[in-house]
Amino acid sequence: MVDASIVVKWFLPVEREPDGVLARSVIGRLAMRTTALAVHEVGNVLTLHSGWPAEKISAALDLLLEVCGDPLELHPEDHRTAAELALAHDLTFYDSSYAAIARRVGRRLLSADSDLVAPGLAVGLSTALGPE
Question: Which domain, by its residues, includes 58?
Fold first, then answer.
């Protein structure tokens, strides 16, 4: 499962995004899902920082859904897990919700966010791809 920190690297210029090329290389190599929150977060980043028109932002979000399928929602049973993870690791509830959903569906979380990777709630790109 990928969070928004990975997905934005698919769309923003690689010069601006560390590991942008590596992030793009996971498309088609890993089975990926994402969350509804990621769609909102990516839409927000592209709207504020890409300089793209609405049509191109919409196309990018459509591509995200094509790659990852229907986004996973935060369910009521995820609320406690997300809150516990947020409190235990000094995270936002937004960030911890990715980890809570990944736990519920039994998937690894792929993230470029060190706040999620450092405590082991997610794996980074190089770990997910393993040795070349």
Answer: 4-73+109-129
User: Which is nearest to 27 in space by CA: 5, 12, 44, 7?
Assistant: 7
- Rounded to whole angstroms, the Cα distance separating 6 from 19 reads 9
Is residue 19, in this structure, part of any structural domain at all? yes
Listed residue (77, 78, 69, 70) closest to 97, CA to CA: 78
Judge contact between 80 and 14, C-beta under 8 A: no
Q: Coil, strand, or helix at residue 27?
A: strand
The count of domains in the chain is: 1
Summarize the confidence of residues 28-37 as an average pLDDT. 91
β-partners of residue 2 are 110
**56 assigned to some structural domain:** yes
The answer to whether the predicted template modeling score (pTM) of the entire model surpasses 0.85 is yes
3-state helix, strand, coil in the chain (%, to 5): 60, 5, 35
